[in-house]
Amino acid sequence: MFDPREWTKQLKSIHGIVRIIYVNEHTGLAKLRCTFTKEQQKALEREDKKLSHT
What we know:
The chain is globular, with a radius of gyration of 11 Å. The N and C termini lie far apart (25 Å). The protein has one helix and three strands; from the N terminus they run βββα. The relative contact order is 0.21. The protein is α+β, with helices and mostly antiparallel strands. The chain has a three-stranded antiparallel sheet, with no helix packed on it. This is Transposon-encoded protein TnpW. It comes from Paenibacillus violae.
């Protein structure tokens, strides 16, 4: 089950291009934003907005 609260957003420079990656706080797994489904990306964005407003 996908839980957007388990993922931390980071900016990472990959071959000179800044990319958005998410790191899972439990496993340490890093994934590019584009590897998530559209629904998961929207959930991650909503969670990021919630965290930035608090």
